[in-house]
Amino acid sequence: MRLAQEDILRYTLDASWTSPEWPSGYWPDPKLKVTDAVWSRTVEGFRRDLEAVCALAQDPGRDLTARIPHGEGRTYLRQVLLVADHNAYHTAHILAVRKLLGGWRG
Predict the structure, then answer these.
(1) Is residue 21 included in any domain, yes or no?
(2) Could you tell me the pTM of the whole model?
(3) Where are the beta strands (DSSP E) in 1-106?
């Protein structure tokens, strides 16, 4: 989720951004040892980029229906909705797995 969200945001705001290779660039390195510090940085990065997407959507000076100058016809609104849809889709999977594994409170 973090890597895709970052890619969508950076692509939207930076004409020089190069997206990662598909699909390997959208998954963490399988050799990476996930420590508490790595997890914390991941969560912080996700939250920071989500805040930036929200700020983009709430910017009164930006016409969300305008096409991104380098965006192949895509609009800012499309990009914001893409982030929302992608995050919702994967959050639902996370919640379903937690529930199935008995890791859900309430």
Answers:
(1) yes
(2) 0.90
(3) none
| Residue closest to 46 by CA, chosen among 5, 8, 81, 83 | 5
pLDDT in tens, 20-40: 999 999 998 889 999 999 999
Q: How many domains does the chain have?
A: 1
Contact 5, 46 (CB under 8 A): yes
Q: Quick check: is 96 in a domain? A: yes
In this structure, is residue 106 part of a structural domain? Answer: no
Contacts of 4 (CB under 8 A, 6+ apart): 26, 86
Look up the domain containing 14 and give its range. Answer: 2-100
Dihedral, CA of residue 85, residue 58, residue 79 and residue 73, to nearest 10: 150
| 57 Cβ contact partners less than 8 Å away, ≥ 6 residues apart | 64, 76, 80
Closest CA to 42 of 80, 88, 6, 92: 6
